[in-house]
């Protein structure tokens, strides 16, 4: 479990995330929703301290406070990141990109040497799981957008992650491909018991795949509940920059110190 305790993030005078307390349970597939600038990426990137909190703390079960260098190193080793623009190296093969997922397991010096057969096998297995074993030796800049994102997923899997953080992983894909790629990510996370926190703009995909939806507006959590509780009106309010028109109320079934979710919009 990852626990955010009163975490806030400021960029100069801008408060990107107001003090927020949340618990992310093991194996849960959480989707972050909210309009542009709502704070989704900021929250997501706090979960492995890619964004340093301005206040508060983040703790991980069995590791403790991530401000501890060793705890952070161990946490990052098992946290796979998936990005909107894939962040792959175009001139390298799919397999070479996927094997980048092993870097956290080695010292800088060791990472200059070829990886072991076992690690190469992990990379090939990851490519196989996303249906791209036959593309292992292809340059990634010769793959389609959907294939490139599947390579991104395979790279994350090669880390043998406990947690995957995916920042708008399907934003640059057409609707059918976006659904296929997200379905694949969801299935793999469920099969392997990997926790996932995924930011999206597609409410329909969030409702289809999330165990839990966290809605943000202006750097605040204004919805936190199971997808079935998100009504069309609430979803609309989430994207209408009108957080004052929705009422936050205690969310009874999740052990989070700040359990909020949207109630029906006020008249
Ligand atoms: N490195 C940064 N420096 C300054 N301001 C930043 C930085 N990163 C984010 N912000 C600001 O923080 C706020 C929240 O940004 P964030 O990227 O978390 O939003 P988001 O919900 O992920 O948006 P989008 O859906 O467009 O990606 C925005 O106002 C953004 O401009």
Automatic annotation (TrEMBL):
GO terms for molecular function: ATP binding. InterPro entries: AAA+_ATPase (IPR003593), ABC_transporter-like_ATP-bd (IPR003439), ABC_transporter-like_CS (IPR017871), ABC_transpr_PhnC (IPR012693), MetN_ABC_transporter-like (IPR050086), P-loop_NTPase (IPR027417). Keywords: ATP-binding, Cell membrane, Membrane, Nucleotide-binding, Translocase, Transport. It comes from the Bacteria. Pfam families: ABC_tran (PF00005). Residues 2-243 form the ABC transporter domain. The keyword Transport applies. SUPFAM superfamilies: P-loop containing nucleoside triphosphate hydrolases (SSF52540). This is Phosphonate transport system ATP-binding protein. It comes from Noviherbaspirillum suwonense. The lineage of its organism: Bacteria, Pseudomonadati, Pseudomonadota, Betaproteobacteria, Burkholderiales.
């Amino acid at each position: 479990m990852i626990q955010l305790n009163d975490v806030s993030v400021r960029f100069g005078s801008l408060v990107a995330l107001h003090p927020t307390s949340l618990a992310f349970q093991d194996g849960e597939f959480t989707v972050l929703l909210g309009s542009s600038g709502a704070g989704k990426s900021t929250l997501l990137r706090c979960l492995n301290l890619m964004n340093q909190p301005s206040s508060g703390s983040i703790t991980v079960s069995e590791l403790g406070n991530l401000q501890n260098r060793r705890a952070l190193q161990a946490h990052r080793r098992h946290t796979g990141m998936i990005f909107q623009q894939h962040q792959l190296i175009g001139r390298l093969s799919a397999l070479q990109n996927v094997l980048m997922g092993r870097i956290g397991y080695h010292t800088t010096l060791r990472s200059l040497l070829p990886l072991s057969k076992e690690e190469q096998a992990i990379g090939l297995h990851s490519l196989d799981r996303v249906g791209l074993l036959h593309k292992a030796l292809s340059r990634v800049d010769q793959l389609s957008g959907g294939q490139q994102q599947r390579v991104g997923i395979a790279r994350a899997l090669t880390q043998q992650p406990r947690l995957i953080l995916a920042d708008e992983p399907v934003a640059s894909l057409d609707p059918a491909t976006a659904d296929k790629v997200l379905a694949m990510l969801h299935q793999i996370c469920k099969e392997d018991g990997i926790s996932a926190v995924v930011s999206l703009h597609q409410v329909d995909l969030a409702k289809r795949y999330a165990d839990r939806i966290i809605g943000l507006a202006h750097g605040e959590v204004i919805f936190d509940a199971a997808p079935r509780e998100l009504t069309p009106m609430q979803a609309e309010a989430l994207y209408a920059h009108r957080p004052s028109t929705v009422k936050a109320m205690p969310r009874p079934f999740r052990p989070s110190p700040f359990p909020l979710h949207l109630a029906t919009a006020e008249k």
